[in-house]
Write a structure and sequence with these properties.
Layout lengths: L5 E5 L6 H14 L7 E5 L5 H8 L4 E5 L16 H6 L4 E4 L2 H6 L4 H13 L3 E6 L3 H5 L3 H13 L4 H4 L3 E4 L13 H18 L3 H5 L1 E5 L4 H8 L6 E4 L6 H11 L1
Parallel strand pairs: 1-2, 1-8, 2-3, 3-4, 4-5, 5-6, 6-7, 7-8
Bound molecules: phosphoenolpyruvate.
Amino acid sequence: MSRRPFIAGNWKMNLGPRDADTLAVALKRLLADNTATDIAVAPPYVSIPAVVARLRHTGIAVAAQDLDPLKSGAFTGAVAGEMLAQAGCSHVIVGHSERRKLFGDTDDIVAAKLAAAYRAGLRPILCVGETLAERDSGQARSVVTNQLAAALVDLSLHQVLKLTIAYEPIWAIGTGRTASPAQAQEMHAAIRAWLAEHYPREVPASLRLQYGGSVKPGNASALLAQPDIDGALVGGAALNAESFRDIVAAAS
Ligand code: PEP
C-alpha cells in the first residue's frame, strides 16, 4: 500500500497572530501547487484562528500543539479538543517530548489526551522517542514501543487507523543533531513491526510514520527516501516558509 506523505510543522511557542498570519500568507503562496503531500501546521493556540482563516481552501491543515483531556470546566488556562475543533483545527499533536519533559505529561495523560482528541473529532499526531541515555544504553526500541503500548491501550481499531505516529528521538529535537537515515529507518521499521504484532495488517500497511528531529531542507530527502518514513514533523525549519516548502518538495 502506498502511503501519502505527510509533513507537519510545529511552530512551538513562536509567532503571535500577526506574525503567524505573515508565515501563513507565505506558505499559501509557496505551497499553492502542492498536490502530492498532506501538509499541516501547528501554530500556538492564540494564532490558530488567524492561520485557519488564512489557509482556508488551501489544503493545508491546521493542528494544535496540545490539548487538555477534559471537555470543559474550571481548569484555568486549559484548552479542550472541542474548542480546537470549533476553531478550525483538524489535527492535534499529542505527547510531544517537550510536553512530556517540561509539562509533566505521563503516559497516562498522553493516553487521556489521545482519547480526548478522538472525542473532539481531531486526528492526533502521537509523538514517541527516546532520550540519548536510553539510546546509549540500548533501550531505544523498548522505550518507544512501551510509549506506543501505553498510548494506544484503549483505542479502537477505527481510532488507531486515524493516527499518525511521529518518531522523534529527543536528542535530535532542536539540537541540530539528526538521526541518520539508517537510524531513523531502523526505528520506523521497529514501530511498524510492533503495529503488525498488535493490529490487523491494514494498520502497519496504512499508518503514516513521521520522523522528527532537526529535519532541514538539506537532510529531508535522505530521511524521506527511507521505506518506512512517510513524512516529517518539523520544528525550527517550519518557521521559515522557504525551508518548509523545500521539505514538502523533498517528500513529493
Ligand atoms: C519538534 O519540535 O517536533 C521538532 C522536531 O523540532 P526540530 O525540527 O526543531 O528539531
